[in-house]
Amino acid sequence: MLEKTPLRTEVQSTAEGTTCLVLTGDLDYDTAAELFTLAQELFSADLRLLELDLSGLDFVDSSGVAALINVYNTALARDSAMRIIALTPYLRHLFKVTALDQVFELPPA
């Protein structure tokens, strides 16, 4: 059985005033709510753009994908935006086969 890696989050502010949320570990059933709660808190602070760095994620299940969709929908509902700035080849493939590459703004391959 594979050992689970806990989700770790780090909020970084860029020189341009953008907020970047760096995720590492597993984004799954056990951790998806943590991401969504943190994103809601960030958007409640009148955040205009949330950048997500997903390059450190080891595993994402359907609950993790749903959490990313919920973060995206929260951004839209608050007249804000979400952009993925880094991701693994695994996630790029996952977004492609689920057509989420047509929804999320992704960095060039």
TrEMBL record:
<feature type="domain" description="STAS">
    <location>
        <begin position="8"/>
        <end position="109"/>
    </location>
</feature>
<dbReference type="InterPro" id="IPR036513">
    <property type="entry name" value="STAS_dom_sf"/>
</dbReference>
<protein>
    <submittedName>
        <fullName>Anti-sigma B factor antagonist</fullName>
    </submittedName>
</protein>
<dbReference type="InterPro" id="IPR058548">
    <property type="entry name" value="MlaB-like_STAS"/>
</dbReference>
<dbReference type="InterPro" id="IPR002645">
    <property type="entry name" value="STAS_dom"/>
</dbReference>
<dbReference type="Pfam" id="PF13466">
    <property type="entry name" value="STAS_2"/>
</dbReference>
<dbReference type="GO" id="GO:0043856">
    <property type="term" value="F:anti-sigma factor antagonist activity"/>
</dbReference>
